[in-house]
Amino acid sequence: MKTFIILSVCLLSLCFRANASQPPKSVKIRGTYTYFVPENVSMEQARNTAIERARLEALAKEFGTSVSQINTVSISSHNEESQTGFRSIGMTEVKGEWLSDIEEPKIEISYQDGQLIITASVYGKARRRDNADFDLLVKTLRNGIESETFKNNDHFSIGFKSPVNGYLSVYLLDDEAGTAYCLVPYENGNGKAREIKGNTDYRLLCTEDPLYPYDEETILTCKGDMEHNRLVIIFSENGFIMPITETGEYVPQLSSDDFSEWLYRNRMRDPDLQIMGKIVEIRNENN
Fold first, then answer.
1. To which H or E segment does residue 203 belong?
2. Taking a C-beta distance cutoff of 8 angstroms, is the pair 148, 140 a contact?
3. Which of 19, 168, 173, 239 lies 20 to 30 Å from 5 when distance is taken between CA atoms?
4. What DSSP letter does each residue of 39-107 carry, written as one string?
5. What are the distances in angstroms from CA 156 to CA 117, 142, 176?
6. What is the mean pLDDT of residues 207-233?
7. Which candidate, 229, 230, 188, places its Cα nearest to that of 211?
8. pLDDT tens figures, 18-41
9. Could you tell me the end-to-end alpha-carbon distance of the chain, in angstroms, rounded to an integer?
10. Is the pLDDT at 210 greater than 50, yes or no?
């Protein structure tokens, strides 16, 4: 009888451990946000902001939020007199993450007393996320200088730094073409996510990178007066599989729908996978 009891306890312990290691299950959620657009914000930027905030509203409603506080002390000197300033910053974070859209976000445009108003409605899959992300440093560089606004034919590169070892991939999404282009890893990367060493400064997509396979710098081009492209930065301490065909061939370019499906599968496999997004604006001053 004692042997049976010990064996039962061990089995229960193994079951609990197995359940604890499984990623949180995804749920379907909806959200709506109404954005009163400032005059200096473009229609494309306003649309993206409204959609992102609608997702955050849905996540906060489903999973709740956590509030933290950062206290900073600054000491300055003026006319041989020192002054000490104290500032407290409250931060609110949602305890969930958006995995993928089930339906295309819906946008409604209206005006009130001449002010543009955009209402975004979203419906997608999400999951609880209680663990904190690493502080990843990601910079978009225009001719070597940090910027998110570019001119036609400007040199483009990315500065990246992680506090831990891991694996990295970067995609550029062209929403008008409905296509996702893999920027990192490069074509010579054999379809494997770029291995990253912690606390190391990387300059990607330029000739300063030893793995960069081209002789010329990466440039951004703009066909119209202005374009907005989305960068998706994917990082994890665990290796992840890049998109491949049924025969195992690496696919550096795929449709936006296929990219979203691939990203969703990886996020379900790896709860620690981090996703960051950046909007890059390109202006054509020759038009």
1. strand 202-204
2. yes
3. 19
4. TTS-HHHHHHHHHHHHHHHHHHHHH-EEEEEEEEEEEEEETTEEEEEEEEEEEEEESEEEEEEEEEEEE
5. 33, 5, 21
6. 90
7. 188
8. 344 455 688 999 999 999 998 888
9. 86
10. yes
Contact, 115 vs 254, CB < 8 A? Answer: no
Residue of 176, 150, 174 whose CA lies nearest to 283: 150
Name the residue with tokens 């200096």. Answer: 40
Judge whether 65 and 95 are in contact, CB under 8 Å: yes
The sign of the dihedral angle between the CA atoms of 118, 123, 128, 131 is negative
Query: What residues does each domain of the chain span?
Result: 27-128, 137-283
- Number of Cβ within a 10 Å radius of residue 240: 21
The torsion of the CA quartet 7, 10, 16, 18, rounded to 10 degrees, works out to -100
Whole-model pTM over 0.85:
no
For domain 137-283, give its CATH number from 1.20.1260, 2.60.120, 1.10.4030, 2.60.40.
Answer: 2.60.40
Hunting for tokens 């599968």 — which residue is that?
265
CA distances from 287 to 221, 223, 229 (A): 13, 9, 19
Q: How far apart are CA 185 and CA 171, in angstroms?
A: 9
pLDDT digits 0-9 by tens, 117-170: 999 999 999 888 765 566 889 999 999 999 989 999 999 999 999 999 999 999
